[in-house]
Amino acid sequence: MSGKLNLDKLDLQIIHAMMENAEISYADLGKQLFVSGGTIHVRIKKLQEYGIVKGTRLTVDLKALGYDVIAFLGIYLEKSSLYDSVAKDLEKIPEIVRLNYTTGNYSMFAEIVCKDINQLRYVLHDVVQKIKGIERTETFISLEESLNRNVRVSLD
Fold it and tell me: What is a single molecular function from GO for this protein (predicted)?
């Protein structure tokens, strides 16, 4: 949507509430914020049109489903101009759940979720290392996730 973003305090309250619990009904959220459910619906629609709200996600305990390995992968590219093609190839790997183009030591940084070390080895050795344009990688295995939260946004 073109034009200037025109968000107000209510928009931010809706965003914060939905980030905490995306399952809340528009009617219940309206009661919580002292507006009608219809107002919430209209505001959510506007936030979607602006591209601020991009759907909802279910938070799943991956360990409970048997995914015991989370790793972070620093990727060195042969040339930074290869980023787009390498990113497209990495997007095809279902175990990669997050990918960032970065400054610093690495050209790219990825988060990988696997059921076990054997699957991680397969992803790294048999899939990632064969992608044209990747010079080398450095892997960090997460021992524990201590914090995972959304940023608190404001109008300032």
Answer: sequence-specific DNA binding
